[in-house]
Recover the amino acids of this structure.
């Protein structure tokens, strides 16, 4: 404390009962926290879980830039983002929008714009994320019918047809890849076409699959596709993408009631995404990051990207089995984008994830109540150097925790798998 002469006065014992400056201040006291440099590890963890995934340098650099969210520079960027997203979704539809929010916000945008109170919705549920679409539909007071697929397997065309006939829904929701239990709805193209023949709009969650495997929105007749940034696209979490078909847009344009979600109202979102004007302040850095992620997908091309993903994931799966561990999903229903591995009975998945992270600096994921760990194969995760490090870390973790595994055979299987093109047309050097 400075006295009138300007020198520092030390409070005397007599002042001890005087209120402290903090107690007299009208403000709450500022918390003392640790800087990020003390919290983040010096050696960054390799993100090999179910997302977020590692991001390329160009994406990281773009994510550090802030520009005006309106104006000609942003307009050019938005035009390019939409053009590239159309390629990635394989659609000629004009109705591509970005979403400031996670994949779940894009999911809620699809559902809240297409599903109205009392409308009949059929939700194909194979796991946690497909159940989320049912929950969102329920919250809109829709009349929700669930086709529950038991046993961690893909939905079959005939069971979907039976449910379509029984419920006659206006909308069908389905996930392409169920990240939670690594189930792949392989029959999605036929299911989507079938639903359209039954006069139903089709909403597809492609959050973990987009750009990792084929999804042809127009050819498969899908009405809304959603994805997040942090998975196959290898961008940051928090900026997502959605595409509506012309038919879906017609339904949205003709709505007379308002969407109760103001931020997720697709018609309002066109102010920013199609008219260069204000809806809300877009997360500019995240949009720039997404631009760069999409640009890299376009430069690689989808066929080459699908090939890289298939080859890496199959090589990973072979190496896991060669180690002596079991894959979780049955072959016919197995997702390549996220690989589920059964945890030996003596261990629990929390132990495995904690050990591999602390000891080997590799992050993998547990699963939603299942005795499974999951390794992602999305975007930058599908690189040979990341796979070698991850398989070595997983095998070493198992050995450290007392499980007998054959790590040399596993590493050899990985090496061999990476040399075999999953399809024609890509040189092994590309991964
Ligand atoms: C298939 C699927 N759908 C939806 C989501 C939700 O995405 P977000 O966590 O970005 O909201 C996820 C996230 O893991 C997912 O894997």
């Amino acid at each position: 404390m400075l006295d009138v002469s300007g020198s520092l006065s030390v409070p005397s014992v007599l002042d001890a009962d005087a209120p402290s400056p903090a107690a007299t201040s009208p403000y709450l006291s500022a918390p003392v926290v640790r800087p990020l440099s003390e919290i983040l590890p010096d050696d960054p963890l390799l993100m090999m879980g179910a997302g977020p995934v590692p991001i390329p340098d160009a994406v990281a650099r773009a994510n550090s830039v802030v520009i005006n969210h309106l104006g000609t520079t942003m307009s050019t960027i938005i035009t390019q983002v939409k053009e590239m997203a159309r390629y990635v979704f394989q659609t000629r539809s004009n109705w591509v929008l970005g979403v400031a929010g996670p994949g779940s916000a894009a999911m809620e945008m699809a559902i809240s714009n297409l599903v109205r109170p009392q409308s009949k919705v059929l939700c194909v549920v194979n796991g946690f994320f497909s159940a989320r679409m049912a929950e969102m539909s329920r919250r809109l007071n829709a009349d929700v019918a669930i086709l529950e697929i038991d046993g961690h397997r893909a939905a079959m065309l005939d069971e979907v047809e039976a449910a379509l006939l029984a419920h006659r829904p206006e909308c069908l929701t389905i996930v392409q890849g169920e990240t939670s239990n690594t189930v792949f709805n392989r029959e999605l193209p036929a299911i989507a076409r079938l639903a359209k023949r039954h006069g139903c709009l089709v909403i597809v969650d492609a959050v973990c699959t987009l750009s990792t495997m084929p999804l042809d929105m127009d050819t498969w007749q899908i009405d809304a596709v959603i994805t997040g940034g942090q998975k196959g696209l290898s961008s940051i979490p928090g900026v997502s993408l959605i595409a509506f078909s012309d038919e879906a847009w017609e339904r949205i344009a003709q709505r007379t009631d308002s969407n109760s979600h103001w931020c997720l109202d697709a018609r309002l979102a066109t102010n920013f995404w199609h008219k260069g004007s204000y809806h809300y302040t877009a997360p500019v850095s995240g949009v720039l990051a997404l631009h760069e992620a999409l640009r890299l997908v376009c430069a690689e091309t989808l066929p080459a990207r699908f090939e890289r993903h298939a080859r890496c994931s199959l090589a990973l799966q072979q190496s896991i089995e060669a180690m002596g561990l079991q894959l979780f999903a049955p072959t016919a229903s197995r997702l390549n984008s996220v690989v589920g591995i059964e945890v030996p009975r003596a261990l629990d998945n929390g132990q495995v994830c904690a050990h591999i992270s602390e000891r080997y600096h590799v992050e993998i994921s547990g699963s939603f109540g299942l005795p499974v760990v999951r390794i992602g194969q999305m975007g930058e995760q599908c690189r040979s150097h990341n796979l070698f490090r991850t398989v070595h870390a997983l095998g070493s973790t198992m050995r450290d925790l007392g499980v007998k595994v054959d790590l040399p055979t596993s590493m050899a299987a990985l090496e061999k798998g990476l040399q075999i093109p999953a399809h024609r047309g890509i040189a092994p050097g590309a991964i």
